[in-house]
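User: Sequence in, structure out. Go.
Assistant: Echoing your sequence, followed by the structure tokens.
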Amino acid sequence: MSEEKNPIGDSDELHEQLHEIEHLLARHKLVEALVHQQNTERQELIDGLIHRQNQNDLHRKLDRMHSADIAYVLEALPLEDRLLVWDMVRSERDGEILLEVSDAVRETLIDSMERHELVAAAESLDTDELADLVPDLPQEVVEDVFQLLPSEEQEQLRAAISYPEGTVGALMDFDMVTVREDVTLEVVLRYLRRFEELPEHTDKIFVVDRDSALEGLLTLESLLIHDPETNVRDVMKKEMMSFHPVDRAEDAAQAFERYDLGSAPVVDENNRVIGRITLVAVVDFIREEAEAEQLAKAGLREEEDIFASVWRSVHNRWSWLAVNLITAFVASRVISVFEGTIEKTVALAALMPIVAGIGGNSGNQTITMIVRAVAMGQVKADAARRLLKKELGVALINGILWGGILGVLAWYLYNSVPLGLVMTAAMTLNLLLAATAGVGVPLIRLRLGGDPALGSSVMITALTDSGGFFIFLGLATLFLL
């Protein structure tokens, strides 16, 4: 889709825009309340004029903003204000903004719209954009939109929504330019001039044969710098990167990063060009994956609207909180086993959180590296032994170094050499446990077909807390009593 509004590049400026809209909304609601309180016709007329003027100010403000910036504003507003702003957005921009907002916020906007409004918003989108929106639309709206599409676009939409999330097909764009190899560059230029505008992010043209099979790539640079009488076949690149719609999106993202691609063709099993994948789509995918990974580490099921209802937020968070509650109870039971030891050596109560805390931090460092490597395709489930050996080495050095420093501090503070030695040993052993868990938890989940990031932070914290308490208090029981 073409976007004529200028985006706001500076985050401070975007925050200022949000503040201005919040101020206009507050004034809008104040005037609205005053209008309802007035008894005289003249005063009501005056307040009504002010009310309309305030609405016009909001309309003008929103009309000047890029769709992505409006999406940011909508996500930052409470539900009542969000819907008020949404009603003031020009209807022809509804589809673009629905694509920009988060899944959670999109749901609230769709729920507020009438059936015909949703159909109009969906109809304004390109086929690949519509495919992104279809899963969130009511079934009857999807059926209406299908009926309004030309037959070619209907087939493209069916194809796009048939590919699973996380595949190249799900990111594919059908809007592209293809030419034949037996024409001159002058013919290509005349052909391009017939377009009102080129497809967004066009950096190359796909060269195909009569059956639409991919034969090469013609870059815009080659098109512009070579003699117009030159044939396409003489300047096109035959060595190229292409993808199949069933390829993993992660693999495509890595290829775009490795080879600095701007776009690449997507071909079927017969090497026929059926679409393309662009850098913009890849960047969006990487961002969404990074956000999902962050949420998964904390045990959140899905992205959450910060202004969602209490029940919705509870539903999103309860499962891993329940796991955390169980593990915290286990940790408390470990401490209770050593109550006698703590009573006799009170210093243990002050020192044992340090052991557990450092272990949790070290484990999260390890698991972050492993999950990232898995996402980049650099690590498979069968690499556990090699990775474990390396991480155990890192943990051993850190344990001896930092555990030694803490041991000296414990000896200095409590005048006890055995306590210092116990502190050093406990720190080293807990870091070794953290390294083992940091490698094992994500790779075991990967081997079982699960998300290696899901709940990883919760699990690491649970293991290093319970394990750290047990190791520290156990060693203290053996060597200090």
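User: And one key feature?
Assistant: Residues 177 and 205 are 6 Å apart (CA to CA).
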